[in-house]
Every structure is written in C-alpha cells, then in structure tokens.
Write a structure and sequence with these properties.
The structure is a homodimer. By secondary structure, chain A is α/β, with parallel strands linked by helices. Chain A contains 13 helices and ten strands. Chain A has a six-stranded mixed sheet, with helices on both faces. In chain A, strands 5-4-3-6 form a four-stranded parallel sheet, with helices on both faces. The interface of A and B includes residues 21, 266, 302, 307 and 309 of A.
Amino acid sequence: MYKQQLLECHNRIKPYIHRTPVLTSRLLNEITGSHVFFKCENFQRMGAYKMRGATNAILMLSERERSKGVVTHSSGNFAQALSLAAQSLNVKAYIVMPSNAPKVKKVAVSQYGGHIVECAPTLEARTVAANKIAGETGATFIHPSNDIDVIIGQGTAAMELLEDYPELDYIFAPVGGGGLIAGTSLAAHYFGNKCKVVGGEPYEADDAYRSFHSGKIESNLTTNTIADGLKTVLGDNTFPIIKKHVHDIIRVTEDEIVIAMRLIWERLKIIVEPSSAVALAALISEKKNYQDMQIGIIISGGNVDLNQLPF
Amino acid sequence: MYKQQLLECHNRIKPYIHRTPVLTSRLLNEITGSHVFFKCENFQRMGAYKMRGATNAILMLSERERSKGVVTHSSGNFAQALSLAAQSLNVKAYIVMPSNAPKVKKVAVSQYGGHIVECAPTLEARTVAANKIAGETGATFIHPSNDIDVIIGQGTAAMELLEDYPELDYIFAPVGGGGLIAGTSLAAHYFGNKCKVVGGEPYEADDAYRSFHSGKIESNLTTNTIADGLKTVLGDNTFPIIKKHVHDIIRVTEDEIVIAMRLIWERLKIIVEPSSAVALAALISEKKNYQDMQIGIIISGGNVDLNQLPF
C-alpha cells in the first residue's frame, strides 16, 4: 500500500519540487571510513525537504477542500513550506506562529504568501488557535509531521536517492517530529536493496531514542539544542512506522553537531542548518560500525540565520 | 589559435577536474531583473577554478620538466591548486609563501602535498625566493595568473558554462591577477554567441579598472578589501587579452560585496568566498543595463575561514 502511495506521490509532486543533487566528498569518506552520498534537500524549494510533504498534503485535498485553505502551526520550515506550496497551488494558507517567533521566520512566511496568526508561545495555545481557524474558515489542518500524506511526501527524497544509488546499505536522517525518518524508512523498505535506516537525534531532545527503546511515545525532557528543527516530538502516525522500519537511533552531543556542520560547510561548500548535520554527526560517532559501507545521508535543509552561527 | 588551445586544454584536464554544476535562483533573478546562471567553481576540486589552470600548466610540461617539479608564489587558492594538481600528477610542487600567511592556508597547502618555502612578506622577496628554488632544483616557475597555459585553463569554466547555456548575453567574473577574466573572455569570444564579458573589481583594489581605461598596466593604490583573492595586479599576458576581449569592468564597494555574498549564501545555499561575490555585486550595481538578459556568473571559489565571516 505504502509502495503505491510513494510512487503516486512522487509523480504528483514532481512538477512542484526540485530533484535535488547528490554530493560526495573524498575527505568526508576518509573521515567516516565509508562511502557517503549526501542528498541535498537544502537545495529544495524554500530550502528544505518539507516542501515535499506540504505539497503532497495539499494535492491530496479535494477541490472543495482546497478552496477553503489549509492551516498549520509551525515556527520552522514547515510554516514556509506550506505557505509556498499553497501559493504555488493557489490555495490560502493560515500559519499559526507563537508571538515570540523570530522576526526573520515571520518575514519568510509572509514572503511565501502565508497568512500569519499569532498565538501565545505554548503547545496548547497553538492547537487552540489552529482549531479556531479551521472551525471559522473550513481550512484543513495539516500537521507538520504526524500526517500520513506529509510522511509519504518526505519519503520521496530517499526514493530519489535510491534511484541514483540503489545499493545503499544505510540511509541516515535526522529525527524531529519523525515525518522525515518515517517516510525515509518506508522508501528504504520498498525501494532499497536491504537498505536500513538510522536516525540521528540530539541528546538534548532525545524523545525518539527513548520512545524507540521504551516502545511508547515519550516526551522531551529538554530541548536545549542548536538543532532547532528537532525539538518536536513523535506522533501516533510517525511512531508506529518508526518502530517497525527504523533500524537504530543514535544520539549526538551539541559539540558533535557543530563539528559535523562545520565539516559539511567547509568540505561540501554548502549551507546546511544544524539539524541537517545531526545525521552526519551520528554516523561519525558510531563510524566503526559502518566501515566501507555505502551510506546515504539526507541533508534536510539550509535555512540558517547567518547572524546566529555557532562559529 | 586560442580556440584550438581551449578545446585541447579542456580535453587534457578533464580527467583531473570536476565538471561543476550551474545553479539558478528565482529570487536572484527578481533582484537583478535578469536570468542569472551561476557556474559553481566553489565545487571544483580544492574549492576554486584555479585547479583548472594549475592542472593545465603542469600537463603542458615535458616529462623531463615534470621530473624536476614546479614552483610558484602564492598565499591563496593557486598555492593549493598547484599543490593538488602536482600531487595528482606525481610532480613535486614548491610553494613560496610569505612568513605571515595565515596558518590555515599553510596547513591546506601541506595537506595537498605542497612543499612550503617561507619568505619575507614583500613582492620582491617572493620573486627572489621562487627564482632561487627554480635555479637550485630546475623546477619550472608557474605564475598564478600571468601564464598563458594558466589563462587557457581558467577559460574552460566559461566554455562549460556556454556548452550548457549557449545563448548567454554576458558572463561576469571577478578580476584579480586577470587570469580568470582573460580566459573567460577568450572562451566567450570563441564559443559564445555574441557573448560579452564583464569584470567585477573592488574599488579598494581597482588596478584592472584603471588599466582598462588608461591603456597601460596600473598598480593598486590600496588593497584594503575583503575580497582577498583580488589584491593582485594584471600582467603582460593577461592585460592584452583583457584590453582586446573584455567588454567592461565595474567597480563595487565593500558593502556591496558583503551584501552580494550574503545573498548567495542565503539564496543559493552555497559557501562562496568574498571574491566570488564581486561579480554578482557588479551585476546588481549596474542592473539597469542588463534587464531581461541571460547572464552567466563565474563563482570563483568557496575557500573561506568560517572564523572570519563578515556577518
């Protein structure tokens, strides 16, 4: 079922997304001891893989639903992705953002045509605000990660990577809300040749690692991480897929994230966000287990504030 | 003559260089009012177009010459390029560097196998040191820019760009020693369809602009620019080609360079050095003259010190 959904999704969203390039680096192969293929979703439209899931979710709506718009709550890449996907499809997007969200994020959402609705900076307030908009306008709520159409959409990045490199032994991806890793694990299961999927997660926001080991959804004890895209938690759609199809989740320290980020900037000459570096950091931290293997890494995005760099 | 040289050079160096990608950005097209195609030599081996000219210069030597090695003076990308090109071809490279060169540059040269010879930080001292090495070892001196084999090699970036986009109206490139712009102007002349070449140069190191207008080689009055690759001056091989084939040279301020660099980082999601941003800064500064045109821009390199960023 998921196999067919992934194939149909890829065809559906193709006209609205970029097929992103895959980069390699001799030095990063030397450092890891493996053959690493970086799928560069930082070059995706609006700068992150989230464009895939957002586009798919809107395209799955009926004409009648689309005419009433979509609504989400996010202060990160999904806010921008849903705004741009909606704009491309001539659909109205309402974005609930906490009142303390950085101005640069609000500007980006506005530039992509999203209608910002501010709320108090609590989990409860944003749910209330999103429900209120849905009730008043008839807009369809689309969750940034815990939505099966979003999950399937995010999986298309790994599908493309496996089309280019069918013999990958592993694909590493960062874990936040779990939409990317869930979609990636489905793509690897259906389109890989025994390809396993490994998640990278900061120690400072390790809900997925603990959920993976306890067997039930755990919340974050801290979210004090530079990887600001990974502070969210798993949901009832992402977790069962992760439990079933993800091979392992590796935690990394903040220092390891910054070192990996710097390696990617200096060696691949590309701008990636801290969250993107978590997957490489995970590989480096347990590299002894992956010697001489073919490893895909999903570079999730490149939206950084150049005034807030860790180096 | 140059046409044949360019074609032969491209075939000669192909096995040792990357064919670099060309990127575009809807937003940068909107900002400039033109259609801009960025030839990304920051993705070239060792991170800059200089790899092309260095490789060609060594490949043009006889077996006997190669056995005695090569020597250059440079504290920038050419030092690394000649080191890596020589290493790839199993040739010894002597690199004369001023004693006050940044440690990070010396480390990079050593990593690529170059043999560093330090000299006092003056133009005279480095020439003396290079001549001494050539005399003692029989190594062939290769100038970083004012060498026809180097110039031809640098022109292959524009050749590839014109293969991909044959109808470019203009190609913009930064001007330092003039090797890149001279090679680019030859490539545009022989392989473009009426394609003209425009140089970008900092006001703070505007020897080429003043030479272009006075008709004779002028020296720099200041070199107080963030574009550290552009502090060098034209030579007797680069200048005649520039005089004959370059359409215009546009000067830009330091602020304009940093703004253009930031646009490239934020919008193309790639790491480029300040020198690379000078060409885009030049286009933006006189964009009214280039509306709706097809513009190529040579992104010259991506070797930056992340501890010394201007933002």
